[in-house]
Amino acid sequence: MSISFLLTSLIVVVTPGTGVIYTMAAGLSRGTRASIVAAIGCTFGIVPHMLAAITGLAALLQASPLAFQILRYLGVGYLVYMAWNTLREKGGLTVDERTAPQSAGKVITTGILINILNPKLTIFFFAFLPQFVDPDEPNALLRMSGLSLIFMALTFLVFIGYGKFASAIRQHVVSRPSIMAWLRRTFAAAFIALAVRLALT
Fold first, then answer.
1. Which of 16, 113, 121, 178 has the most CB atoms in a 10 Å sphere around its CB?
2. Nearest CA among 42, 118, 119, 114 for reference residue 85
3. Number of structural domains found in the chain
4. Whether pLDDT at 150 is above 80
């Protein structure tokens, strides 16, 4: 493992995306535990992309425009759904303390779906991992698996950091409905922006 791999991975992980938005929304609405659960879901959502890259499915997706388009628009549709759900049902940003919390399973499932339906992750792994693996290396498959696990660990730790920050400022914003309403609109707009960016990629 090289320093360049760690730095590049860290830059990619720290850059805000759908997973970060979802984890912060969970932290703002239900505190640290919910943000950790969301981070777990988003991290597990990386696994299919990692396996796709390692087994060569990513190459098939690149070679098949139809497969890529289907996966991409599934992702776009899900992001739009997340935006609509955030506005309609207040999504993860529910200010009413009497509202029953979402189950850990539901939070994890949503986090997994958010990252599964992001084909850019598959393409990223396909283009990213080979740069740090010698093609003549006898254990290339094992090395790619190890690097992928390190990437996942970085994702989990960074997302927890985002979630803890969100939960730390939670009490300062939950008591102010106008701020929470603004945050709901902001998160919904962010999901829409990510959907548009994915659709135009």
1. 121
2. 114
3. 1
4. yes
Residue 175, pLDDT score: 60
Structure confidence at residue 96 as a pLDDT band (50, 70, 90): very low
Q: At what angle do helices 140-168 and 32-44 cross, to 10 degrees?
A: 160
Cβ proximity of 69 and 192 under 8 Å: no
Q: Is the C-alpha dihedral spanning 188, 106, 197, 24 positive or negative?
A: positive
Q: What kind and span of H or E run contains 84? A: helix 65-88
Cβ neighbours of residue 185 under 8 Å, at least 6 residues apart?
A: 87
Rounded distance, CA 157 to CA 196, Å? Answer: 28
Q: Domain containing 54: what range? A: 3-200
Instruction: Give the pair of three-digit tokens for residue 8.
Output: 């590049």
Helix 3-14 and helix 140-168: axis angle, to 10°?
40
